[in-house]
Model the fold of this input.
Amino acid sequence: MEEGEYESVLCVKPEVHVYRIPPRATNRGYRAAEWQLDQPSWSGRLRITAKGQVAYIKLEDRTSGDLFAQAPVDQFPGTAVESVTDSSRYFVIRIEDGNGRRAFIGIGFGDRGDAFDFNVALQDHFKWVKQQCEFAKQAQNPDLGPKLDLGFKEGQTIKLNIANMKKKEGAAGTPRARPASTGGLSLLPPPPGGKAPTLIPPPGEQLPAGGPFGQTAVAPSSVGGATVSWPQPKPATPATADVWGDFTKSTG
Done:
């Protein structure tokens, strides 16, 4: 036990009775009926403390707090604390005086609830001791700890249940909805043959023969009852005649 360890209190009961018990003749266990229950040898307060992994059952005077006897417990259940076979309110504990001398005495509680708390306090302490030992082993040897196996066993399957799944629009086997017409109008079909439209020149003009699309000129149009002929475009004057003029002739 290290000197730096602190002592914690696990349980305190204000009244406990101590009994002298006869030697155990057989291995059948202790019986409280064989004690003089109406004549306890001592009565006082019981306190359970813990220092490190060891618990201590201390019998103290109610008024002064002086220690009457002490029973160190390093294992529970074990020989340091034993239950009797005929009652849940009585126990046999092994007390020590610090000089190597030991003795077994009987203790009893007038209330069953106090006996239950006494038992649970010891159980909880040694559960904690067991957990601390396991944590220390895992810290020293991490590979010894249990490993989480997320793999599938042989023959193991998994099922997925997805309710209310909707098919995607336009998927195979699903008819695509046709767009509704707006205003009750229907689209006109394209013109047959794909012919190019005929150009109509403005009044006072006439398309040249052949036109840009290889068609003949349009007939003269009638404006206000009078027939108007479209004038033919003037032939282009050669560039040389306009630019050079008389310079083409000899000046000599």
